[in-house]
Amino acid sequence: MRHLKYGRKLGRDTDHRKALYRNLVTSLFEHGQIITTDAKAKAIRPIAERLITLAKRGDLHARRHALGFVRKKTVAHKLFEEIVKEYKERPGGYLRIIKKGFRKGDAAPISVVQLVGREKK
Known about the structure:
With 121 residues, the chain is of the alpha+beta class. The chain has 4 helices and 3 strands. Helices cover 51% and strands 17% of the residues. 20% of the residues are buried.
């Protein structure tokens, strides 16, 4: 039984899953939105929101922590300088997940993950 188990494995081992999360979150901050499966979208939402909340602190320790997770320095800089300014007054809920349909090859449910307020950019 799966009672009291938490987290998503996504059919990968631990290192592969962590690398996947890092790549997805980096792409999300770099482009403002990504298209991925529902399960991956739901898995990265708390990670990305936690990083934005961390960036709102803006101190050196927060910046180093974010640089340890985000793959590119330019994306980390964008997170701290541009993205955070838009969410200064917002207490949470920085991401939006929109159901898009099903993938053609394997009929996997697909979603669009967007930063709220950055859809048009």
